[in-house]
Design goal:
Helix content: 25-40%
Distance between the termini: 11 Å
Number of strands: 15
Radius of gyration: 19 Å
Largest sheet: 7 strands, mixed
């Protein structure tokens, strides 16, 4: 099968190679003896893959390895118990190995997708929407009628978060960096859009501030995110695409009765199949009602995976970036 491998840790430009490899076994390392073999049609591209090309991500497999965690495709084979069967159109999270023509995922991380979705939308489902659900509802304790401020609102996680917040009765202020990203954030359902290259904190405050801030960016936005919170608000840390990890002056939390909480979906969910299954069950009616529908951005053929990573590295992505494999 054709696959992309990371062969050295030299950044997005010089780490990838297109290779012919043996197809994987019908068993996943997370669930030995069981797994779902998927003929991959589309694979998701996310910021962790950028970090993996530099050796900066917490998951550091031995070189060479096939990166990619998200796929949309068709089930070829099922080993062990699963709620899917051969021929089903699915979205799946496989940890590694997605950037290939064939991938294997754990059964509990494999979900049927609606007939009207294309496979790229399937590749955008699990990581983005499960993260958004975990960040907003589990860690952010979002309640209907509250206001959510979303940084990076035009990206894969960002658009999923906007849709998730709207589906649960929230008002959304989206923070974006360009006119095109503003268009995408509004397409996702944002009520208000504020440009990050201006006085966004003052504008967000003028709009009433936020009960919950979802921050996958970090860096120098962090302090102003705290300042944009209403009393009792929660700032949820999802990631650090700005590559700078901020520090908290905890006296500000005391003075305003606010919180900073982390939302690491992988750490919380990947070893707990029952949690993943329960989240999937909670998302299903929202998907069926059309409230959650992944927004796909740039699509690249498999052999142009480096171009996709460069786009992510430059923070130029809108929607979910995907590799079209089949």
């Amino acid at each position: 099968m054709r696959a992309i491998q990371i062969t050295r840790l030299a950044g997005p430009d010089d780490s990838l190679s297109l290779a012919e490899l043996h197809e994987p076994q019908a068993s996943h390392p997370m669930t030995p003896g069981s797994g779902v073999v998927i003929d991959v049609h589309a694979a998701g591209v996310s910021f962790p893959e950028v970090l993996q090309t530099r050796g900066d991500y917490q998951l550091r497999p031995d070189l060479p390895f096939v990166p990619g965690s998200e796929v949309g495709g068709v089930v070829r084979e099922v080993r062990g118990r699963a709620d899917v069967r051969p021929g089903d159109r699915v979205a799946a999270f496989c940890m590694l190995g997605a950037w290939a023509q064939v991938a294997v995922a754990p059964a509990h991380l494999t979900f049927r997708i609606p007939d009207e979705w294309d496979f790229a939308q399937g590749a955008a489902l699990v990581l983005n929407y499960h993260t958004a659900h975990f960040a907003l509802l589990t860690r952010g304790r979002l309640a209907a009628g509250e206001t959510v401020l979303v940084h990076g609102a035009a990206g894969g996680v960002g658009t999923a978060t906007v849709q998730m917040a709207k589906a649960h009765g929230a008002r959304v202020i989206a923070i974006v960096s360009s006119e095109e990203k503003e268009r995408v954030a509004r397409l996702a359902g944002a009520d208000e859009v504020v440009r990050s290259d201006g006085p966004w904190k003052d504008q967000a405050t003028d709009l009433g501030g936020a009960d919950v801030v979802i921050d996958p960016v970090g860096g120098d936005r962090f302090t102003d995110s705290l300042r944009s919170l209403r009393e009792g608000g929660r700032l949820v840390v999802v990631g650090f695409t700005a590559r700078s990890i901020p520090e908290v002056r905890v006296n500000r939390l005391l003075l305003t009765n606010t919180e900073v909480v982390g939302a690491g979906w992988g750490a919380a969910a990947l070893g707990r199949p029952e949690r993943v299954i329960r989240t999937g069950e909670q998302l299903r009616p929202l998907i069926d009602a059309g409230r959650l529908r992944p927004i796909v951005g740039p699509r690249f053929p498999l052999e142009r995976a480096a171009d996709a990573l460069r786009l992510m590295d430059g923070r130029g992505a809108t929607g979910k970036v995907v590799l079209e494999v089949a």
